[in-house]
Design goal:
The protein is an all-alpha fold. 76% of the residues lie in helices and 0% in strands. The chain has one domain. Helix 5 packs across helix 7.
Amino acid sequence: MNQPKLILLISVLLIALVTDLWKRKIYNVLVLLGLLGGLAINIHSMGTIGVIFWLKGSLLALFVFVPLYVLRGMAAGDVKLMMVVGGIVGLPLIVDVMLYVYIAGGLIALLIVLFRKQGQNLLNNLKAIMLNHLLRVRTGVNLNMSLNSTQSVGKMPYAVAIFAGTLYALHKHNIL
């Protein structure tokens, strides 16, 4: 990974980390600048192939993280931030980044649940989800259970996991 890509990636991730921790928001202007910056750097360093490189990384991140958004496990800004990361690092590195981001997210969520002493609520929520799924698969009946009927274990600023997972992937690939 060339130096301009690394500078752009770390800059976007740091700004997203700060705004997500402070305001619980990843701003669209940051995402737009990250996407356009990643595209420009890839075109500059690879020519027209850079567009394909950027698209593959961005779209793979979109398709992998949209299910978490649909399940309300992450916000739209987090998905868009992952698209920025994917567009900058491209394939195949985004695959490792996504794996480490998911692992970091799970570990951070577990720590938050334990710190807030919300373990029982987590188990109740998982039980409700599993029972609804099992009933739907076995009988075709959907109880339309909403997580609104159970107590949430809370939200987390997912940019922390994105930052940590991305840096770990870069370290594992001897980029940092």
